[in-house]
Amino acid sequence: MSVSTTVPLPLFPLHTVLLPGAPLGLRVFEPRYLDLVSECGRDGGSFGVCLILKGDETGAPATPAAFGVEAVIEDFGSDRCGLLTLRVRGGRRFRVADARARDNGLLVGSVHWCDAQADAGAVAARLRPEHAVMGTLLGELLEQVGGEYARSNLRRLEEADWVGWRLAELLPLGDAQRLALLQEDDPHRRLEHLLLWMDE
Fold it and tell me: Distance of CA 56 to CAs 69, 95, 119, 160, Å?
């Protein structure tokens, strides 16, 4: 994990795990999160999604997991009830050093980015021979489910990071398993975790 100074990041704790590269739909109605979306729109910023370890998505600030993923807003609209809807996509992983609640109840974390090498444009790690079956499995899954990934460059099926995150997104894993993957920096070890879980 890279050692860096912390940066402030507003947090949106949820009973789900956002994964890097994965889409997520949100309905926003609490004032603290409406304020958050306004800030992001005004400043061009993003926010962090963390799994809730204790508490609820509404009401008093929940206790978030120490690891989360940046949520980048791709689109917004409203539902039939007039509530704000967002489509976000997972960006960089982060680790929360500490968090505090604003007066409106919004949690703001001091976070370390985990993916500094990816940000610097490092070459994506290739699948190792022992994980080639994972790329094949993902290719078969994408053919079945279709959707946005069906149009992805087939070369991505050779990237350890991308294969791992897409399998983590598509396979029936629990939140605790996805959170464990978020805490793992090595893409090859993430694939090892997935192989073990698939064998169980």
Answer: 19, 21, 33, 34
